[in-house]
Amino acid sequence: MLAGSTREEERKGITSAIGTRLDNLYEIAEGKSSWALRACKDTRTEFNGGFIVGGAKCAALDAFVEGKNQPIRVFIPFGTGKRPCP
């Protein structure tokens, strides 16, 4: 299982979009600040989704992996150009 969340101080500007809207038009308020994904046991599993971001930023996401005690912090650049993330 993989679970993730956006940091509390960033939740007004970024959220996950794992859903099934036919028009694919999401608003930040519609997304989720945390999620959990479970793979199928005996077959390949794919997860469709993405992020809704309000403006350019380096977003810090915490990934929680089954069997690990501490989350893994991942920085993802959204529209930041050549500016590196920490």
Structure, explained:
The chain has strands at residues 2-6, 14-17, 34-37, 50-53, 57-65, 72-78. With 86 residues, the chain is an all-beta fold. A four-stranded antiparallel β-sheet has the order 3-1-5-6, with no helix packed on it. It has a two-stranded antiparallel sheet with strand order 2-4. The chain has one domain (2-78). 0% of the residues lie in helices and 38% in strands. It is globular, with a radius of gyration of 14 Å. 5% of the residues are buried. It is built from no helices and six strands. The model has no long low-confidence stretch (mean pLDDT 79).
**Number of structural units classed as domains:** 1
The largest beta-sheet arranges its strands as 3-1-5-6
Rg, nearest Å: 14 Å
User: What string, H for helix and E for strand, traces the elements in order?
Assistant: EEEEEE
CA distance, first residue to last residue: 26 Å
Could you estimate the helical fraction of the residues in percent?
Answer: under 10%
Q: What oligomerization state is this entry in?
A: single chain
Low-confidence stretches: none
Q: Report the average pLDDT across residues.
A: 79
Structural class: mainly beta
Question: Beta-sheet strand percentage?
Answer: 35-45%
